[in-house]
Amino acid sequence: MDSLSFATAAYRAVSEHIRAEDPQIDDQSLADTVEGLTDLHEILTTVIRAALADQALATGLEGRIGEMQARRDRLQDRAAKRRQIAKDAMVELDLKKLSAPDFTASIRPGTPALMVIDEAAVPSIYWEPREPWSQPPRIGD
Predict the structure, then answer these.
(1) What is the DSSP annotation of 45-62?
(2) Range of weakest confidence among 5-14, 54-63, 67-76, 80-89
(3) Helix %, strand %, coil % for the chain, to 5?
C-alpha cells in the first residue's frame, strides 16, 4: 500500500474513531484534530506542489517548443536558400556534379513545363484547373 493510500485510510479511521467517541464534535474541530494526528495533509501538500511544478515545466516547455519550431523554420528556410544558391551557381557554370566526402550534388535538366497557349484547344476531359504549385529545388543524394 502506498503512503497516500495508507494516509487516506488512517485519516478515515481516525476520523471515524473520534466521531464515535464524541458524536457532538463539530466538523471544524474534528478536521483540525484529525489533521494533527495524520500525515494526509502533508502528503497531499507534497502531491499538489509536485503538480504545480509539473504544470510550470509544461508551460515553460510550451514556450520553448514555440521558439524551437520558429528556429527550425528559419533553419529550413536558410537551407533552401543555400541550396538554391548552389544550384544557380552550378547551372550558370554548367557544373553537372559536385562530389565531397560527405555528399554528392548533381543537377540535371528536368522535364520541361507544360505551356498551354490556347486553353480552348485542350479537350475538356484533359482540363482540370488547379492552383499552380512548385517543388523546392533538390540538390544532393
Answers:
(1) HHHHHHHHHHHHHHHHHH
(2) 5-14
(3) 65, 5, 30
